[in-house]
Amino acid sequence: MEELFCIGCGAKIQTEDKEKAGYTPASSIQKAEETGELYCQRCFRLRHYNEIVDVHITDDEFLQLLHEVGDSDALVVNVVDIFDFNGSVIPGLSRFVSGNDVLLVGNKKDILPKSVKDGKVTQWLAERAHEEGLRPVDVILTSAQNHHAIKDLIDCIDKYRKGRDVYVVGVTNVGKSTLINAIIKEITGDKDIITTSRFPGTTLDKIEIPLDDGSYIFDTPGIIHRHQMAHYLSAKNLKYVSPKKEIKPKTYQLNPEQTLFLGGLGRFDFIQGNKQGFTAYFDNNLNLHRTKLEGADAFYDKHVGSLLMPPGPKEVADFPKLVRHEFTIKDKMDIVYSGLGWIRIQGKQDNPVTIAAWAPEGVGVVIRKALI
Question: A GO molecular-function term, please (predicted)?
């Protein structure tokens, strides 16, 4: 078969992998022979439905794109997942953006319980960004799914871009494309107003969205982050690490030497301290199982993939081993399992609590001041 290329973005046409650039169903290629216009599925959806679909690119391609961002004078809008900051940080982004301003957008705010104060979340995101070497000019919380704070985001972008182009960057699974689509809808008021010619997918690496003053918003493909728990689960089980509804907290009274399994995705050991209630913030459907710390290793080996799910029976073989992280807590703190949720602990200076948090190898576990 001769090599074919999308006339919208220049990507080489392929029919094998829906996640990669240039994907086109074989039936569309046959139709294109009649019309003489061959678009990849991404460009087709953009032209006809004004929907931006994320594609996956290689690390090298993404590095090349970041260099382009660094070489331009632009506002960089970095979209992260509030629920999975560790898994949604772009490694080395601070080096590449050079002197450009960064606006940090924490997406999926709707997942957090209503009792969580916005100020605490934005402060925590800013602190974590600083640890990564980023100095965002502002932090804003949104929900792309519910169109929450999209107008505020647009006003914020307009305030900080100062007539410059805008690059929207983020790893896969943070909701970046949904956010971009929400911005388009908000700007136009009615998506039917947008003519397809206004969205030239000029190159494979980005989509240009023209602004009134001649500048552009560049939507960039999502880079795959190796440390996202989502990469180890089937599509059916992704819901446990990408909740769609507000989390309902559950409190467990634990004695020392007790363990709480988070399905088969993680584990919480209460090692030392007074009996207390630990409040868990995870997807409402994730099954938490309490057992004795003694024998917990054997219990996990025996039941992971069955009683302790996810991972499912077919995922167990490829699922990373759980790695232990021990902490001594002397204040009200959260233990955060990156991309999964967190557990609130009531420690005191004169009565510290010792716990161990287990997460899949490569998946981060961090502590923070309690959000609630």
Answer: GTP binding
Mean pLDDT of the region 294-308: 96
Tokens representing 323 are 């790695």
- What pLDDT score does 271 carry? 97
Confidence of residue 194 (pLDDT cuts 50, 70, 90): very low
Q: Three-class SS of residue 191?
A: helix
pTM as predicted: 0.77
Mean pLDDT value across residues 297-319: 93
Identify which has the larger pLDDT, 363 or 86: 363
Q: Which long-range contacts (CB under 8 A, 24 or more apart) does 225-228 make?
A: 225/87, 225/88, 225/89, 225/90, 225/91, 225/171, 225/172, 226/362, 227/86, 227/87, 227/338, 227/362, 227/363, 227/364, 228/84, 228/87, 228/88, 228/171, 228/172, 228/173, 228/339, 228/363
